[in-house]
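Practice problem: predict the structure.
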Amino acid sequence: MSRKIGKEKGWGSRTGRTTKRKIECAVTSELESADLSDEILKTILTVPSELHEAIKEILAKRERVRTEHGPAKVAFKTKLGTLFNGDCLRVLEKLEDESIDCIFADPPFNLSKEYENGKSDRLSDSDYWAWTREWLDLCCAKLKTGGAFYVYNLPKWATLIASHLAKKITFRHWIAVDITFSMPIPSRLYPSHYALLYFIKGGRPNRFTPPRLPMETCPRCGKELHDYGGYKMKMNPQGISLRDVWVDIPPVRHSKYKNRDANELSLKLLDRVLDISTQEGDLVFDPFGGSGTTFVAAELKRRKWIGAELGDCSSIVERFKSLERDHSSLERYRLGLNQLFTDKALMARHKHGLPLDNYRVSDEQIRRVIRVVSSDAPKNQKNRQTTEQSTFPDL
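Answer:
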Protein backbone atom coordinates (compact mmCIF):
# COMPACT_ATOMS: atom_id res chain seq x y z
CA MET A 1 0.00 0.00 0.00
CA SER A 2 1.37 3.42 -0.92
CA ARG A 3 2.18 5.99 1.74
CA LYS A 4 -0.28 8.38 0.04
CA ILE A 5 -3.21 5.97 0.38
CA GLY A 6 -2.33 5.26 3.98
CA LYS A 7 -2.17 8.98 4.71
CA GLU A 8 -5.56 9.58 3.08
CA LYS A 9 -7.11 6.91 5.25
CA GLY A 10 -5.51 8.33 8.35
CA TRP A 11 -3.65 5.13 9.12
CA GLY A 12 -0.43 6.99 9.76
CA SER A 13 -1.98 8.86 12.70
CA ARG A 14 -2.75 7.63 16.20
CA THR A 15 -6.48 8.13 15.55
CA GLY A 16 -6.32 6.22 12.29
CA ARG A 17 -4.45 3.30 13.83
CA THR A 18 -6.94 3.14 16.72
CA THR A 19 -9.93 3.15 14.36
CA LYS A 20 -8.39 0.47 12.15
CA ARG A 21 -7.63 -1.68 15.19
CA LYS A 22 -11.22 -1.37 16.47
CA ILE A 23 -12.55 -2.45 13.07
CA GLU A 24 -10.17 -5.42 12.99
CA CYS A 25 -11.30 -6.49 16.48
CA ALA A 26 -14.96 -6.16 15.49
CA VAL A 27 -14.43 -8.26 12.34
CA THR A 28 -12.56 -10.91 14.33
CA SER A 29 -15.34 -11.02 16.92
CA GLU A 30 -18.02 -11.42 14.25
CA LEU A 31 -16.08 -14.19 12.50
CA GLU A 32 -15.71 -16.05 15.78
CA SER A 33 -19.39 -15.70 16.66
CA ALA A 34 -20.39 -16.89 13.18
CA ASP A 35 -18.80 -20.28 13.96
CA LEU A 36 -17.49 -20.71 10.42
CA SER A 37 -15.88 -23.98 9.40
CA ASP A 38 -12.15 -24.27 8.66
CA GLU A 39 -12.91 -24.71 4.96
CA ILE A 40 -14.83 -21.44 4.78
CA LEU A 41 -12.12 -19.52 6.65
CA LYS A 42 -9.44 -20.94 4.32
CA THR A 43 -11.56 -19.94 1.34
CA ILE A 44 -11.74 -16.39 2.66
CA LEU A 45 -7.94 -16.29 2.71
CA THR A 46 -7.58 -17.49 -0.86
CA VAL A 47 -10.24 -15.52 -2.74
CA PRO A 48 -10.13 -11.92 -1.48
CA SER A 49 -11.40 -10.37 -4.72
CA GLU A 50 -14.52 -12.59 -4.81
CA LEU A 51 -15.04 -11.88 -1.11
CA HIS A 52 -14.97 -8.14 -1.76
CA GLU A 53 -17.75 -8.51 -4.31
CA ALA A 54 -19.80 -10.60 -1.88
CA ILE A 55 -19.39 -7.97 0.84
CA LYS A 56 -20.44 -5.23 -1.58
CA GLU A 57 -23.60 -7.20 -2.41
CA ILE A 58 -24.40 -7.68 1.28
CA LEU A 59 -23.99 -3.97 1.93
CA ALA A 60 -26.14 -3.10 -1.07
CA LYS A 61 -28.87 -5.47 0.11
CA ARG A 62 -28.85 -3.92 3.59
CA GLU A 63 -29.04 -0.44 2.15
CA ARG A 64 -32.06 -1.43 0.05
CA VAL A 65 -33.77 -2.71 3.21
CA ARG A 66 -32.95 0.53 5.06
CA THR A 67 -34.39 2.76 2.37
CA GLU A 68 -37.39 0.57 1.47
CA HIS A 69 -39.72 1.90 4.15
CA GLY A 70 -38.66 5.54 4.23
CA PRO A 71 -38.49 7.69 7.36
CA ALA A 72 -40.57 6.85 10.42
CA LYS A 73 -43.46 9.23 11.14
CA VAL A 74 -45.28 10.02 14.36
CA ALA A 75 -48.53 8.01 14.39
CA PHE A 76 -49.78 8.75 17.89
CA LYS A 77 -48.82 10.66 21.02
CA THR A 78 -49.89 10.84 24.65
CA LYS A 79 -48.52 12.88 27.53
CA LEU A 80 -46.23 9.98 28.35
CA GLY A 81 -45.34 8.44 25.01
CA THR A 82 -44.86 8.58 21.26
CA LEU A 83 -45.57 5.88 18.68
CA PHE A 84 -43.71 6.00 15.35
CA ASN A 85 -45.03 4.32 12.22
CA GLY A 86 -41.98 3.03 10.41
CA ASP A 87 -38.84 0.93 10.55
CA CYS A 88 -37.52 0.51 14.10
CA LEU A 89 -33.95 0.98 12.81
CA ARG A 90 -34.81 4.50 11.68
CA VAL A 91 -36.35 5.25 15.08
CA LEU A 92 -33.40 3.80 16.97
CA GLU A 93 -30.93 5.87 14.98
CA LYS A 94 -32.66 9.06 16.15
CA LEU A 95 -32.63 8.17 19.85
CA GLU A 96 -29.83 9.44 22.05
CA ASP A 97 -27.25 6.95 23.27
CA GLU A 98 -27.66 5.87 26.92
CA SER A 99 -31.19 7.34 27.06
CA ILE A 100 -33.49 4.32 27.62
CA ASP A 101 -34.17 2.71 31.01
CA CYS A 102 -35.80 -0.47 29.72
CA ILE A 103 -36.19 -2.08 26.29
CA PHE A 104 -38.70 -4.82 25.57
CA ALA A 105 -38.53 -6.44 22.12
CA ASP A 106 -40.91 -9.02 20.69
CA PRO A 107 -39.69 -9.23 17.07
CA PRO A 108 -41.16 -11.32 14.25
CA PHE A 109 -39.99 -14.92 14.61
CA ASN A 110 -39.34 -15.44 10.87
CA LEU A 111 -42.01 -18.11 10.60
CA SER A 112 -43.15 -17.02 7.11
CA LYS A 113 -46.34 -15.54 8.54
CA GLU A 114 -48.40 -13.04 6.60
CA TYR A 115 -49.70 -10.26 8.86
CA GLU A 116 -52.93 -8.31 8.52
CA ASN A 117 -50.90 -5.19 7.68
CA GLY A 118 -49.57 -6.82 4.49
CA LYS A 119 -46.13 -7.47 5.97
CA SER A 120 -44.48 -10.87 6.26
CA ASP A 121 -41.50 -12.37 8.05
CA ARG A 122 -40.33 -14.51 5.18
CA LEU A 123 -36.54 -14.06 5.19
CA SER A 124 -33.67 -16.47 4.79
CA ASP A 125 -32.12 -17.43 8.10
CA SER A 126 -28.94 -15.50 7.24
CA ASP A 127 -30.83 -12.32 6.33
CA TYR A 128 -33.01 -12.59 9.43
CA TRP A 129 -29.97 -13.01 11.66
CA ALA A 130 -28.13 -10.09 10.03
CA TRP A 131 -31.18 -7.85 10.57
CA THR A 132 -31.55 -9.10 14.16
CA ARG A 133 -27.93 -8.28 15.00
CA GLU A 134 -28.39 -4.78 13.60
CA TRP A 135 -31.34 -3.82 15.82
CA LEU A 136 -29.83 -5.61 18.83
CA ASP A 137 -26.63 -3.55 18.54
CA LEU A 138 -28.57 -0.31 18.21
CA CYS A 139 -30.67 -1.16 21.26
CA CYS A 140 -27.54 -1.83 23.31
CA ALA A 141 -26.17 1.58 22.37
CA LYS A 142 -29.39 3.38 23.38
CA LEU A 143 -29.74 1.59 26.74
CA LYS A 144 -28.59 3.35 29.89
CA THR A 145 -25.89 1.78 32.02
CA GLY A 146 -27.83 -0.35 34.49
CA GLY A 147 -30.83 -0.47 32.15
CA ALA A 148 -32.72 -3.67 31.32
CA PHE A 149 -33.06 -5.33 27.91
CA TYR A 150 -35.72 -8.02 27.41
CA VAL A 151 -36.02 -10.04 24.20
CA TYR A 152 -38.99 -12.37 23.62
CA ASN A 153 -38.47 -15.04 20.97
CA LEU A 154 -38.41 -18.72 20.12
CA PRO A 155 -35.62 -20.77 21.74
CA LYS A 156 -34.18 -21.35 18.25
CA TRP A 157 -33.34 -17.68 17.88
CA ALA A 158 -32.92 -16.96 21.58
CA THR A 159 -29.79 -19.11 21.70
CA LEU A 160 -28.14 -16.96 19.02
CA ILE A 161 -29.45 -13.70 20.49
CA ALA A 162 -28.18 -14.59 23.97
CA SER A 163 -24.74 -15.47 22.61
CA HIS A 164 -24.55 -12.20 20.68
CA LEU A 165 -25.76 -9.98 23.52
CA ALA A 166 -23.47 -11.64 26.07
CA LYS A 167 -20.50 -10.14 24.20
CA LYS A 168 -21.87 -6.63 24.78
CA ILE A 169 -23.98 -6.56 27.94
CA THR A 170 -24.58 -8.71 31.03
CA PHE A 171 -26.77 -11.82 31.07
CA ARG A 172 -29.23 -12.08 34.00
CA HIS A 173 -31.89 -14.69 33.22
CA TRP A 174 -33.38 -16.95 30.58
CA ILE A 175 -37.06 -16.87 31.57
CA ALA A 176 -39.27 -19.66 30.22
CA VAL A 177 -42.79 -18.38 29.58
CA ASP A 178 -45.10 -21.39 29.42
CA ILE A 179 -47.68 -21.25 26.63
CA THR A 180 -49.98 -23.80 28.33
CA PHE A 181 -50.94 -25.44 25.07
CA SER A 182 -49.83 -28.67 23.43
CA MET A 183 -50.58 -30.69 20.37
CA PRO A 184 -49.01 -33.76 18.75
CA ILE A 185 -46.04 -33.05 16.48
CA PRO A 186 -44.29 -35.98 14.76
CA SER A 187 -40.57 -36.65 15.28
CA ARG A 188 -39.94 -33.88 17.81
CA LEU A 189 -40.81 -32.55 21.25
CA TYR A 190 -43.56 -29.97 21.27
CA PRO A 191 -42.14 -26.49 22.00
CA SER A 192 -44.27 -25.36 24.94
CA HIS A 193 -42.46 -22.19 26.01
CA TYR A 194 -41.19 -18.91 24.67
CA ALA A 195 -37.82 -17.58 25.78
CA LEU A 196 -37.72 -14.22 27.52
CA LEU A 197 -34.08 -13.13 27.72
CA TYR A 198 -33.21 -10.62 30.42
CA PHE A 199 -29.94 -8.67 30.13
CA ILE A 200 -28.62 -5.51 31.76
CA LYS A 201 -26.03 -3.03 30.60
CA GLY A 202 -23.13 -2.96 33.01
CA GLY A 203 -22.49 -4.85 36.22
CA ARG A 204 -25.68 -4.24 38.20
CA PRO A 205 -29.27 -3.21 37.44
CA ASN A 206 -30.51 0.27 38.26
CA ARG A 207 -33.70 -1.36 39.48
CA PHE A 208 -34.63 -4.94 40.34
CA THR A 209 -37.96 -5.22 42.17
CA PRO A 210 -39.66 -8.47 41.14
CA PRO A 211 -43.16 -8.89 42.55
CA ARG A 212 -43.92 -11.78 44.89
CA LEU A 213 -46.63 -14.28 44.02
CA PRO A 214 -49.20 -16.02 46.24
CA MET A 215 -48.89 -19.72 47.00
CA GLU A 216 -50.61 -22.11 44.64
CA THR A 217 -53.71 -23.43 46.38
CA CYS A 218 -56.62 -25.72 45.65
CA PRO A 219 -59.37 -23.61 44.04
CA ARG A 220 -62.03 -25.45 46.06
CA CYS A 221 -60.65 -25.70 49.60
CA GLY A 222 -57.73 -23.27 49.59
CA LYS A 223 -55.22 -25.91 50.76
CA GLU A 224 -51.64 -25.34 49.60
CA LEU A 225 -50.64 -27.55 46.64
CA HIS A 226 -46.93 -27.78 47.48
CA ASP A 227 -45.01 -28.91 50.52
CA TYR A 228 -42.87 -26.10 51.85
CA GLY A 229 -40.74 -28.37 54.02
CA GLY A 230 -42.30 -27.44 57.35
CA TYR A 231 -41.02 -23.88 57.18
CA LYS A 232 -44.40 -22.18 57.28
CA MET A 233 -43.25 -19.89 60.05
CA LYS A 234 -40.46 -18.61 57.82
CA MET A 235 -42.58 -18.02 54.72
CA ASN A 236 -42.41 -14.42 53.63
CA PRO A 237 -45.86 -12.87 54.30
CA GLN A 238 -45.55 -10.97 51.01
CA GLY A 239 -45.52 -14.18 48.99
CA ILE A 240 -43.30 -16.58 47.08
CA SER A 241 -40.17 -15.40 45.26
CA LEU A 242 -40.61 -15.06 41.50
CA ARG A 243 -39.03 -17.94 39.55
CA ASP A 244 -37.53 -17.97 36.06
CA VAL A 245 -40.31 -20.28 34.81
CA TRP A 246 -43.58 -18.38 34.40
CA VAL A 247 -46.59 -20.69 34.16
CA ASP A 248 -49.25 -18.15 35.15
CA ILE A 249 -49.26 -16.02 31.99
CA PRO A 250 -51.34 -17.77 29.32
CA PRO A 251 -51.28 -16.49 25.73
CA VAL A 252 -54.05 -14.14 24.62
CA ARG A 253 -56.10 -16.37 22.33
CA HIS A 254 -59.77 -15.58 22.97
CA SER A 255 -61.16 -13.02 20.53
CA LYS A 256 -62.92 -11.30 23.43
CA TYR A 257 -59.57 -10.13 24.80
CA LYS A 258 -57.61 -9.63 21.58
CA ASN A 259 -57.13 -6.29 19.85
CA ARG A 260 -56.05 -7.75 16.48
CA ASP A 261 -56.13 -11.04 14.56
CA ALA A 262 -52.40 -11.74 14.93
CA ASN A 263 -50.74 -12.95 18.13
CA GLU A 264 -50.86 -10.58 21.07
CA LEU A 265 -48.83 -10.40 24.26
CA SER A 266 -50.53 -10.57 27.62
CA LEU A 267 -50.78 -7.34 29.57
CA LYS A 268 -49.83 -9.40 32.62
CA LEU A 269 -46.45 -10.21 31.03
CA LEU A 270 -45.57 -6.57 30.44
CA ASP A 271 -46.85 -5.56 33.87
CA ARG A 272 -44.42 -8.03 35.43
CA VAL A 273 -41.47 -6.95 33.25
CA LEU A 274 -42.03 -3.28 34.07
CA ASP A 275 -42.44 -4.13 37.76
CA ILE A 276 -39.06 -5.85 37.80
CA SER A 277 -36.99 -3.25 35.97
CA THR A 278 -38.70 0.15 36.02
CA GLN A 279 -40.38 2.72 38.23
CA GLU A 280 -42.69 5.64 37.49
CA GLY A 281 -41.11 8.17 35.15
CA ASP A 282 -38.62 5.72 33.57
CA LEU A 283 -38.39 5.61 29.77
CA VAL A 284 -39.40 2.35 28.06
CA PHE A 285 -38.77 1.51 24.39
CA ASP A 286 -40.39 -1.22 22.27
CA PRO A 287 -39.15 -1.50 18.65
CA PHE A 288 -41.96 -3.84 17.53
CA GLY A 289 -45.27 -2.35 18.64
CA GLY A 290 -47.59 -5.13 17.50
CA SER A 291 -50.89 -4.69 19.34
CA GLY A 292 -49.43 -2.01 21.63
CA THR A 293 -49.36 -4.02 24.87
CA THR A 294 -46.01 -2.55 25.98
CA PHE A 295 -47.25 0.99 25.41
CA VAL A 296 -50.54 0.38 27.23
CA ALA A 297 -48.75 -1.16 30.21
CA ALA A 298 -46.29 1.73 30.35
CA GLU A 299 -49.08 4.28 30.09
CA LEU A 300 -51.17 2.69 32.86
CA LYS A 301 -48.11 2.32 35.11
CA ARG A 302 -47.00 5.93 34.55
CA ARG A 303 -43.84 5.13 32.61
CA LYS A 304 -42.71 7.24 29.67
CA TRP A 305 -42.50 5.29 26.45
CA ILE A 306 -41.35 5.34 22.82
CA GLY A 307 -42.36 2.75 20.26
CA ALA A 308 -42.15 1.78 16.62
CA GLU A 309 -44.50 -0.24 14.43
CA LEU A 310 -43.76 -0.92 10.77
CA GLY A 311 -47.30 -1.89 9.84
CA ASP A 312 -50.71 -0.34 10.37
CA CYS A 313 -50.92 1.44 13.74
CA SER A 314 -54.70 1.88 13.77
CA SER A 315 -55.35 -1.02 16.19
CA ILE A 316 -52.93 0.53 18.70
CA VAL A 317 -54.52 3.96 18.35
CA GLU A 318 -57.99 2.48 18.82
CA ARG A 319 -56.83 0.59 21.88
CA PHE A 320 -55.67 3.82 23.51
CA LYS A 321 -59.05 5.45 22.90
CA SER A 322 -60.59 3.01 25.37
CA LEU A 323 -58.19 1.94 28.10
CA GLU A 324 -60.89 0.97 30.60
CA ARG A 325 -60.75 -2.74 29.74
CA ASP A 326 -56.96 -2.83 30.00
CA HIS A 327 -57.07 -0.86 33.24
CA SER A 328 -59.56 -3.32 34.73
CA SER A 329 -57.44 -6.27 33.56
CA LEU A 330 -54.34 -4.76 35.10
CA GLU A 331 -56.07 -4.22 38.45
CA ARG A 332 -57.35 -7.80 38.38
CA TYR A 333 -53.86 -9.17 37.64
CA ARG A 334 -52.38 -7.26 40.54
CA LEU A 335 -54.91 -8.30 43.22
CA GLY A 336 -52.90 -11.34 44.26
CA LEU A 337 -49.42 -9.84 44.15
CA ASN A 338 -47.16 -9.46 47.18
CA GLN A 339 -49.23 -11.54 49.58
CA LEU A 340 -48.94 -15.15 50.69
CA PHE A 341 -52.60 -16.05 50.02
CA THR A 342 -55.10 -14.53 47.66
CA ASP A 343 -58.33 -13.35 49.26
CA LYS A 344 -60.13 -16.10 47.34
CA ALA A 345 -57.83 -18.77 48.83
CA LEU A 346 -58.35 -17.41 52.36
CA MET A 347 -62.11 -17.43 51.90
CA ALA A 348 -61.94 -21.07 50.76
CA ARG A 349 -59.81 -22.00 53.78
CA HIS A 350 -62.27 -20.16 56.02
CA LYS A 351 -65.19 -22.06 54.51
CA HIS A 352 -63.53 -25.47 54.99
CA GLY A 353 -62.15 -24.71 58.44
CA LEU A 354 -58.49 -24.88 57.45
CA PRO A 355 -56.29 -23.08 60.00
CA LEU A 356 -53.47 -20.79 58.98
CA ASP A 357 -51.16 -22.57 61.45
CA ASN A 358 -47.94 -20.56 61.56
CA TYR A 359 -48.32 -18.71 58.27
CA ARG A 360 -47.79 -14.99 58.69
CA VAL A 361 -50.81 -13.30 57.10
CA SER A 362 -51.59 -9.66 57.69
CA ASP A 363 -54.41 -8.84 60.10
CA GLU A 364 -55.76 -6.38 57.55
CA GLN A 365 -56.21 -9.09 54.91
CA ILE A 366 -57.82 -11.49 57.39
CA ARG A 367 -60.32 -8.85 58.51
CA ARG A 368 -61.10 -8.03 54.89
CA VAL A 369 -61.78 -11.67 54.08
CA ILE A 370 -63.94 -12.14 57.21
CA ARG A 371 -66.04 -9.11 56.25
CA VAL A 372 -66.67 -10.55 52.80
CA VAL A 373 -67.45 -14.04 54.11
CA SER A 374 -69.70 -12.64 56.84
CA SER A 375 -71.69 -10.56 54.38
CA ASP A 376 -72.35 -13.64 52.23
CA ALA A 377 -72.95 -16.17 55.02
CA PRO A 378 -76.32 -16.89 56.68
CA LYS A 379 -76.94 -14.58 59.58
CA ASN A 380 -76.11 -17.07 62.29
CA GLN A 381 -73.84 -15.08 64.54
CA LYS A 382 -72.96 -17.94 66.86
CA ASN A 383 -71.84 -20.32 64.12
CA ARG A 384 -69.95 -17.56 62.32
CA GLN A 385 -68.01 -16.53 65.44
CA THR A 386 -67.09 -20.17 66.14
CA THR A 387 -65.76 -20.61 62.60
CA GLU A 388 -63.78 -17.36 62.68
CA GLN A 389 -62.17 -18.19 66.00
CA SER A 390 -61.19 -21.73 64.97
CA THR A 391 -59.83 -20.70 61.57
CA PHE A 392 -58.18 -17.40 62.48
CA PRO A 393 -57.43 -17.71 66.22
CA ASP A 394 -55.09 -14.72 66.24
CA LEU A 395 -58.09 -12.42 65.80
